[in-house]
Amino acid sequence: MKIIIAGAGAMGSRFGLMLHRANHEVVFVDGWQDHIDEINKNGLQANFNGEEIVENIPIYNQNEISKINYSADLVILFTKAMQLDNMLQSISNLLHERTKVLCLLNGIGHEDTIEKYVPYDNILLGNTMWTSGIEGPGKVKLFGDGSVDLQNLGVGQKQIANEVIEALNQAGLNAQYSSNILSSIYKKACVNGTMNGLCTILDCNIADFGKTSYEDRIINQIVDEFIAIADAQNIPLNKDEILDQIKSSYNLETIGLHYPSMYQDLIINHRLTEIDYINGVIVRKGEQYQIATPYCTFLTELIHTKEELLGVK
């Protein structure tokens, strides 16, 4: 399958590398020029569960991608939420009427943007529990196991989803079909809505936060706000399952030592965060449904304050 990875950061690099190693024709598209130059010069360098590997995968700046002759069967979206529209516009000439688009972005509501560029029936929403980290331009660290849940948006288009699942599973990405992807997306958003913002503000990894005496109270309050908003939209969530998933991430033998993507963006790389598309969405929907969201509101404001203090634009 001819696959574009739109957004070749930590997670995009993981998926692209694993799909490439499964003999799919993978092309990276990104906007970080140092990262692009390093991969073009020395290949994508990865610590893959302790093994040092290098893979030569084509990568292009999104502002130059229109120059290449390529027609994608599948686009997997891994941009930051605020970069999605610009990325899709940049690669629009590489899309055709049968191109499938799988959105694995953090956050909620991205299908409204994607539909401007591909038919609704070609859109798949998903979430992934894989993890990855950027160690510098062209260098990533891939560790632990994960999975991908996805679902077609178009009615009667499950076959499209199954084709994508097959391609992902050829690469060992543990994909499975979800009959209610919005529940899965909200469940993942609960994990991001706790670990991302809290670890970023508190300057700690996941395991360190899990050791604190306040973790249980804080996590419960934030998850309650997400569940209240989901209930207002008739999206079923199981609180016990969500809490178990969050607390399982504290494990030092799995991803406990991981610093979440928001921490990597803001604290390490001084980039704007996706807080408005995670906790910020809950705040906006809370205003819409007249539901109080004090924890999400405060966390969103703290992250934006940190962005200002660091001079991030």
Automatic annotation (TrEMBL):
InterPro entries: 6-PGluconate_DH-like_C_sf, 6PGD_dom2, ApbA, Ketopantoate_reductase, KPA_reductase, KPR_N, NAD(P)-bd_dom_sf. It is an enzyme of class 1 (oxidoreductase). Residues 180-307 form the Ketopantoate reductase C-terminal domain. Transmembrane segments: none annotated. Pathway: Cofactor biosynthesis; (R)-pantothenate biosynthesis; (R)-pantoate from 3-methyl-2-oxobutanoate: step 2/2. It catalyses: (R)-pantoate + NADP(+) = 2-dehydropantoate + NADPH + H(+). Residues 3-152 form the Ketopantoate reductase N-terminal domain. GO terms for cellular component: cytoplasm. Its EC number is 1.1.1.169. One of its GO terms (biological process) is pantothenate biosynthetic process. Keywords: NADP, Oxidoreductase, Pantothenate biosynthesis. GO terms for molecular function: 2-dehydropantoate 2-reductase activity; NADP binding. Belongs to the ketopantoate reductase family. PANTHER family: 2-DEHYDROPANTOATE 2-REDUCTASE, 2-DEHYDROPANTOATE 2-REDUCTASE-RELATED. Catalyzes the NADPH-dependent reduction of ketopantoate into pantoic acid. This is 2-dehydropantoate 2-reductase. The lineage of its organism: Bacteria, Bacillati, Bacillota, Bacilli, Lactobacillales.
